[in-house]
Amino acid sequence: MKRLAQWLLRAVIALLALVVLSVVAVGIWGYQRNELPLPVAVGKLEALATGRFPALAEPLGRTLDVLGLRDLPLAAGTFPPVAQWQGIGAQPEASGVPPPLEFRRVEVHDPATLIAAIRAAQPGDVIELAAGVYPLNVRGIDVSRGGTAERPIVVRAARLGDAQLRMNTLEGFVVGAPYWRFENLDIRGVCPDHDDCEHAFHIVGRGHHTVVRNSRLYDFNAMIKANGFEIEGRFTAPDAALIEGNSLYNTAVRNTGNSVTPIDVVGADGWVIRGNLIADFIKGRSDRTSYGAFVKGNAQGTVIERNLVICEMHLSGQAGVRIGLSLGGGGTDASYCRANDCSTEHRDGIIRNNLVLNCANDVGIYLNRAAGSRVYNNTLYRTVGIDARFGETDADIRNNVLTGRIKGRDGASVNEADNLIGSRREFERWFMEPDVADFGLRDGDAIVSHGKPLPGVTDDLCGNPRNPSQPDLGAIEFGKLPCHPNQAPR
């Protein structure tokens, strides 16, 4: 009898082991069949077991550990250091020319003269930073004197890299007045505690028509943060900003439980986020969920276009979830939502001509309570795809090229057409070296001239014109003009 009991126990253990191994094999096969990267497949399998089959979660986790399958790196391609990066994003060659000579020029050479010039600024001032390092240890630099549409106030270096601002401060520029332009600045957060370096720019209240262009912003939790609040009994938001041609990234995992989102906009209308490199935004604590950019809080009319988002560029193999671009996002406190209404997180936004890569364990584009959303001509590689979620979301998703899938969840309404979903192997057949953002064309039979003309999509990732009658699928138009997102497109 004792031997029978031992035999039965061994049989049960063997059967349980067989069940767990079968779950692993079938689960990974199922996700791989949908062409998800192995780290993504393993992460999804664990989440499924924990949520639906909790009795299997612990033995499954141990099995994954034994097999060495847990927290696998995404194994992305090798990219040059951002300072040597010559693709989409900030470039010294794009520093541009200063405003007209009739504008008043104010030259500054250290933190004290910079802060004094900002406090005394008048419409039309051009505050130019001399070459050098500017250590900034104040809590924040208040930007409270406004410019005008005809005479904005400009803070600039003559060339990107000349002026290096090093911020050991919770916030850098706190922009609460309209018509300020910041350009060609190299701004790094240097706080020993990552909780203490939140934002390079916090754009608030009356800070509408702010422009941040051709700047490197790095080692912050949310490099650009924007929100409105009540002023004199009325909700006031920093609408109509332009964030263009910047490089936003981190050189290490952010050891924080705070929000890690390079562009974090709440309740502001009419923002344009264009031509930026957004990379390496990994959150190391709390829920470990981070976004490249989101706009939420009942905002309206956002344009997110021609950006290169690389969730894992130089930092890889970390646990957690990275999401590329989002209309909507996490929940918002009602006091920060427009009209105190958070029932819809975003209205009438468009995400077009973006290239999104290497978003481990989640989607490249996410629509969360996002009404009237248009997702046109994007290319997503090594992400889970596109999610539209909740009944408030209605989305038109067309002319995209992606790995993964397109999915409506929790009552979202999705119209999808003319999208091309391919495997990683197919991407490697279609494009030169997608792992390093080289999307030069190898085989365009499935891509070239297979799109449909769409309202508002007249150019591509590099600003080249689209074929007006038979455009290509995805972010790049493979016509006479070159478009290489990993090389300077200018």
Task: Give structural notes.
- The structure is a single chain.
- This protein is 16% helix and 31% strand.
- The protein is an alpha/beta fold and 490 residues long.
- It folds into two domains: 2-67; 82-441, Pectate Lyase C-like (3 Solenoid).
- The strands form six sheets. It has a twelve-stranded parallel sheet, with helices on one face.
- Helix 1 packs across helix 2 (38-52), helix 1 packs across helix 3 (54-67) and helix 2 runs antiparallel to helix 3.
- The longest helix is centred in the first third of the chain and has 32 residues, at 2-33.
- The N and C termini lie far apart (82 Å).
- 51% of the residues are buried.
Please give a handful of descriptors for the protein shown:
16% helix; globular; 490 residues; eleven-stranded parallel sheet; alpha/beta; 5 helices
